[in-house]
Amino acid sequence: MTNLLIFGLGYTAKRIAEEMRTRGWQVDATGSAGNVDFTDRDAVKVALDRASHVLSSVPPDRRVGLDPVLDTYGRNFGKAPSQRWYGYLSSTGVYGDQQGAWVDESTPTIAETGAGRRNARAEADALWVKLGARVFRLPGIYGPGRSALDRVRDGRARRINMPDQVFSRVHVDDIVSGVVAALTSDAPAGAYNLADDLPASGNAVTEHACQLLGIEPPPLETLEEANLSEMARGFYAENRRVANGKAKRVLGWQPQYPTFAEGLGSVLGSQS
Questions:
Q1: H helices of 83-156, where?
Q2: For a tag on the chain, would you pick the N or C end, based on fewer CB atoms within 10 A?
């Protein structure tokens, strides 16, 4: 039986675990819903010793700038003969602001250029690439319970008057299919962007969600009028389009939801 150890069983990784179990894999995981306590070094070492594949979805600690998985257990990687595959769920935020330009896996990251503020995610991404992992760079993730539909229903949706601002996004099921393709095909190490085919403004997504729900869209506001949190303002400070050609060529991956329209339609259908 093939064994997968997942560090951090969150929104996306939980779905990856479920899919791999249906394929007959043994899956161990840390996190609140996992069967291994991250702080129990003996238990983690046992799981690592039997794992053939290791996937981390644990973000770096922004306060100290360290990746907790690599910092705590990196020295144990590669010790067991069975270990042959490493993966990491990263972020397309590692590319920084590109003023709306397209980025692909050859685009230098913040960690490589030193641009902008110190970015722990970019540094962790670089460490996993150096380790020989398959690094999945993810844009905004949406899916059931976590989409523009939920923000509209809850009254949290905003429309910000930034006409040239675009983002890339990806449905959680398309992340799962991309990671599974890399797990099952022994894909080459390196970075893979998993994004849909249509970068678009946040306003376009919000307006489509409102249309699906039969709700009037929220008023258009300036960034100052919106009075957003520092984290949310940081989101609007970056502008880029994420290319997914490498994942299609190398992994044979095709997003089931190539645009937000198909993705939101599916989410709405799953909730009815």
A1: 110-113, 120-131, 148-153
A2: C
